[in-house]
Amino acid sequence: MDPSRRGQPRLSVRLPSVNLASDISNTVAPLPDLPPISALFLIDFDVKAGYTIAWKQAAPGIELEGLVEYKSLPSGLHTVSDDLIYFVHQGAHAGLSAFVNMPCDEEDARNARMIAVGVLVPLSYGRLGRAWRHADGLKELAVKLAEDRKRTGLLEAYWSKAKSQEDPVPDLPRTDALLESPLVGAHTPKLKQGHNRNRSASDGTVLSQPGNRLSSHHPAWSLVPLLDTFGPLIFPIHRAALLRKRILLSCHAPVHEMCNFVYNISVLSNIPLSVTEILGSDSPSQRLRPLFSIGVHDINFLQEDFEASKRPRTKTDDNVANEAGTGWVACTTDSILAMKDTLWDMLITMPPPYAPNAKERVWPTVECPQGVPVRATQRDLRRFRALKGGLSRLKTTTPGPRPAAESPPAEHTPDIHLTTGAFPSTGVDSDEALDKIVEPISWTALAYSGFLWWASAGEQGRSDEQEEAALDASLLADLGPSTPSMSAPSSGRRLSGGMGDSVNSLAGRRATLSTDDDEARRELAIIAYFHRLTTQMLSVMADAVDNSEQERYEDDEDEDTDAAVDESEESSPLQRGVTGREELGPVQLGIHAVESMGLDVWNGHDAHFVRELASLYFDREVRIEGKGVEVCGVRVC
Q1: Which helix (H) or strand (E) holds 365?
Q2: Cβ-based neighbours of 369, under 8 Å, separated by 6 or more
Q3: Cβ(266)–Cβ(242) below 8 Å
């Protein structure tokens, strides 16, 4: 609401009910693509009764009482003036509430009026149902109702304009929803082009469609702050998301940006469509479930989900209706959830907000149960610096800041910038600032590099560095004119179209993009980068599995040539191929394959990740060949 209006006498804003409906209609008009809502509610804080639903409208069969009050208003909101909260309601709807904490003269209310206006949107329109498109309307409603709670005519008008029809999902065109989020597993038969909900890169692809403007509240705008906040820690988080771990962000209010981080972590860990065709039949969900804001009221749900993860998965579990036990990512302001380490696999503790001019960089703390710390590897650090360098080159070719009309309101800017992501980028490159989150170089790696430099007069080291740089540069290739077009050695499978699912086709559309579309170039490049990194890892592993099986069959055929004809017919290679995976033996993975996956060959955590990746997506065991130097048959490092 405009400040000048806020200062007018109260009588000047008490308009007839007809004009109220017209007022809210004008508010909604600039957003023609509002997703239909299934519920609209107003939550008011009462000193004696707590949070209560003061007004509500919902489609038949949707329960609100005793549920949305707690999901819409996480702990700690009384310390902030306003916030936007995302949540998931009973697995079928995404929720968005706009919270306002406004000073008032009522002593019974402790001189503060706290309300929230929220909606529920069907998840058939994406992992958040495109609920962010309602953010501006809900914020304006919340401000007006905080000034005068009797203006419920605003809610009636908004509900009449935005409510769902009797059976909207089958009848509405779903192209936009399909572009924004896949809701099915990797093994659903392919649908016709334009309606394929398997497209895991869709959350990035939607940014590249000509004519589609990125809303000012779209979570993708938080992708750059996500990298600035976590630094090289984003890579171990990404690996945990690929393994479909339960990832919990413990944070402080406000939670809007943390909810955006939850959304983006889920998007970055999507499995590209082309890769799903080479995965095992029992591979996990194509996406990581985002639960957004959760609290103590969700403990029972989290415990049930943990029990479901212990049960063997079947093909029916790939259905979107049953995602229990498939991993998730969420944020919470309730510290009790962080204390229960049986509820999560990875805990990310966000530091409290700091001023942008703070001298000391404070990083999030990442840990596994029982306090086992998680830090980035030396390879992660080099890759992160390469990524930031590539994004800076994209920034130099990107137009100026978003127009004021597309920017978030000024009153929310401090909440966003008072995070660790607001530190200058120079702090990211400071070795002292990174010591706490990056593992030091191991003695073995140091000895190996020193011996290699001595034996090859430094030539081999430079060759390895160039190959690594080319591999990192290829992940940002074709996404901007300033990005190096170096190509790295890769398998044929990786070059066969996986990049298309990671929005590599943007280059062909670049000439058709408007200025507003082009401003999302860095966000689009980040999504493409991580999708390509995922493709790179899974493709190398798939090649190793194929080569292992091929070598086994060739060995069996050589043995069969020496056997009798009747014996060879009884034990043909085709029949032996039906045997269980436990009889196939471990997959041999060389050090060059590990390097091609973008991992640290010296790091034990990366080796453990490779084993889990092979088991989860290919149901195979992996044996990794070690890297070292032997002198006269004696291993020296």
Answers
A1: strand 365-368
A2: 341, 342, 344, 345, 347
A3: no
Mean pLDDT over residues 275-299, rounded? Answer: 89
- The strand ranges marked E within 164-311 are 246-250, 289-294
Rounded-to-integer distance, Cα 64 and Cα 153, Å: 20
pLDDT computed for residue 312 by the predictor: 75
- Secondary structure (H, E, C), 392-422: HHHHHCCCCCCCHHHCCCHHHHHHHHCCHHH
Tens-place pLDDT, residues 417-446 = 334 343 334 444 566 778 889 998 765 666
> Is the pLDDT score of 511 beyond 50?
no
3-state helix, strand, coil in the chain (%, to 5): 50, 15, 40
CB 246 within 8 A of CB 328: yes
The string over 596-610, giving b where at least 16 C-beta atoms fall within 10 Å of a residue's C-beta and e elsewhere, is bbbbbbbbeebbebb
Q: What is the DSSP string of 494-540?
A: TTSSHHHHTTTTHHHHGGG--HHHHTTHHHHHHHHHHHHHHHHHHHH
Q: Do residues 328 and 309 lie in contact, with contact meaning Cβ atoms separated by under 8 Å?
A: no
- Considering the chain, what percentage of its residues have pLDDT values greater than 70? 61
Distance from C-alpha of 353 to C-alpha of 418, rounded to nearest angstrom: 5
Residue 117: partners with Cβ closer than 8 Å, 6 or more residues away: 40, 41, 42, 43, 97, 98, 138, 141, 142, 145, 155
Quote the CA–CA distance of 506 and 500 in Å, as a whole number. 9
Is the model more confident about 456 or about 135?
135
pLDDT band at 190 (very low <50, low <70, confident <90, very high): very low
Report d(CA 175, CA 178) in Å as an integer.
Answer: 5
Rounded Cα–Cα distance for residues 634 and 430 (Å): 39
Q: CA 443 → CA 431, 602, 637, distances in Å?
A: 19, 10, 9
Pick from 106, 129, 124, 138: nearest CA to 170: 124
What is the three-state SS of 95-136? EEEEEEEEECCCCCCCCEEEEEEEEEEEHHHCCCCCHHHHHH
Contacts 24+ apart (CB under 8 A), 443-448: 444/602, 444/628, 444/637, 445/378, 445/602, 447/636, 447/637, 448/602, 448/627, 448/628, 448/629, 448/637
Greater pLDDT, 293 or 195 = 293
pLDDT at 413 over 60: no
Q: Per residue in 416-439, is it b (16+ CB within 10 Å) or e — as a string?
A: bebbbbbbeeebbeeeebbeebbb
Q: Are 600 and 377 in contact (CB under 8 A)?
A: yes
Could you give the maximum distance between any two Cα atoms of the chain, in Å?
101
Helix (H/G/I), strand (E/B), else coil: 83: strand
Helix axes 223-230, 256-268, angle to 10 degrees: 90
The closest alpha carbon to 43, from 112, 115, 109, belongs to: 115
Six token digits for residue 195: 């309606």
Rounded to an integer, what distance in angstroms lies between the CA atom of residue 141 and that of residue 191?
40
